[in-house]
From TrEMBL:
UniProt feature coiled coil, ranges: none
Name this protein carries in UniProt: CDP-paratose 2-epimerase
Cross-referenced InterPro entries: Epimerase_deHydtase, NAD(P)-bd_dom_sf
UniProt family annotation: Belongs to the NAD(P)-dependent epimerase/dehydratase family.
Organism of origin: Sulfodiicoccus acidiphilus
Family matches, as PANTHER family: DTDP-D-GLUCOSE 4,6-DEHYDRATASE-RELATED
Superkingdom per UniProt: Archaea
Domain NAD-dependent epimerase/dehydratase, residue spans: 4-268
Length: 346
């Protein structure tokens, strides 16, 4: 069985590639190593996660860009499975460069879907909860001492997949990812392709280099350990459900091995695994013995006070639930970050 993982040298993609390779797949990692250039800032060593998996005998690298249709078609020849994690990942970048954001997220996804159609490959897309846009902000919230919470009992389990994606603002990033999401759905409905669309909440874990614009759990962790300043936009009570990366990989694998031909799933930690920014800072003080350097600034456009995924559909159809809780997951991230920073003497 041949699997292609786009963005396979990144944090999420490398974990998917490693899982597939260890289970006997021939894995092609398709990546352009362009993270730093897309975000315009350092993300640590851009080859770090590739170096973690390049020694696996069934893994090989195809250096290419999803915007290059011919490269995508060449890399995916004979693929049984394609997992598409390559993306422009930051809302802030999409605001300053919406054209590149579109080309990578929308056009790039269409190129990969065409490759999947031509090979009749099973296809998994890493989508995002940003497809729901600013509509989430219409859900009433109540303020607690360290967090906001949904005040409408209809959302006690979080935001469901049928919440609605239309007639609201999205930001260019949310729009380009929504296009990718809808195209992946339509390639099942039109062409019968096996497609799994996973609308990701905040995925975090060891081997992750976060920055202010993306990967906030890892960014807060690394900034705390290295005494870098952390800026909180708003009051820090905003809440997200967080999902450890190993649980995410397990969900992808469950879909691929299932008899399901199609599914759209909200994938996050759910209501049992939530953190506000202030609560993460408090947990990091406890786990590291260090006090983060925190400053505050104005709320940013399209920021959500609360987003929590309703993961009951994934539980019902895939038999999946998060297994790694917040304390265990953040502890693993802290331990890795401490070891990594000691090894590079930061």
């Amino acid at each position: 069985m041949k699997a292609v993982v786009t963005g396979g040298a990144g944090f999420i993609g490398s974990r998917v590639a490693e899982s597939l390779a260890r289970d006997g797949f021939e894995v092609v990692v398709f990546d352009n190593f362009g993270r730093g250039s897309l975000l315009g800032k350092s993300l640590g060593d851009p080859l770090y996660n590739w170096r973690r998996i390049e020694h696996l005998p069934s893994v090989r690298l195809f250096k290419g860009d999803v915007r290059d249709r011919s490269a995508v078609l060449e890399a995916t020849k004979g693929a049984d499975v394609i997992v598409h994690t390559a993306a422009q990942v930051a809302v802030t970048t999409s605001l300053t460069d919406p054209v590149t954001d579109f080309e990578v997220n929308a056009r790039g996804t269409l190129n990969v879907l065409e490759a999947a159609r031509l090979n009749d490959s099973s296809f998994v897309l890493s989508s995002t909860n940003k497809v729901y846009g600013e509509r989430v902000n219409a859900i009433p919230v109540r303020e607690e001492p360290t967090r906001y919470e949904f005040a409408d009992s209809r959302f006690r389990n979080g935001v469901p997949e049928d919440f609605g994606v239309d007639l609201t603002g999205h930001t260019p990033y949310g729009t380009s990812k929504l296009l990718a999401d809808l195209y992946a759905q339509d390639y099942h409905h039109t062409y019968g392709l096996k497609t799994g669309v996973f609308r990701m909440s905040c995925v975090y874990g060891d081997h992750q280099f976060g920055v202010e614009d993306q990967g906030w759990v890892a960014w807060f962790t690394i900034a705390t350990l290295t005494d870098r300043p952390i800026t909180i936009y708003g009051d820090g009570k905003q809440v997200r459900d967080v999902l450890f990366v190993d649980d995410m990989v397990r969900a992808y694998r469950l879909f691929l091995s299932s008899g399901l031909k199609h599914g759209v799933y909200n994938l996050g930690g759910g209501p049992e695994n939530t953190l506000s920014l202030l609560e993460l800072l408090s947990l990091l003080r406890e786990l590291t013995g260090k006090s983060p350097r925190v400053g505050f600034s104005d709320w940013r456009r399209a920021d959500q006070k609360v987003y929590v995924s309703d993961v009951s559909k994934a539980e019902r159809e895939l038999g999946w639930r998060p297994e790694i809780g917040v304390r265990e997951g953040v502890s693993r991230l802290v331990k890795w970050a401490q070891d990594y920073l000691a090894s590079v003497k930061v």
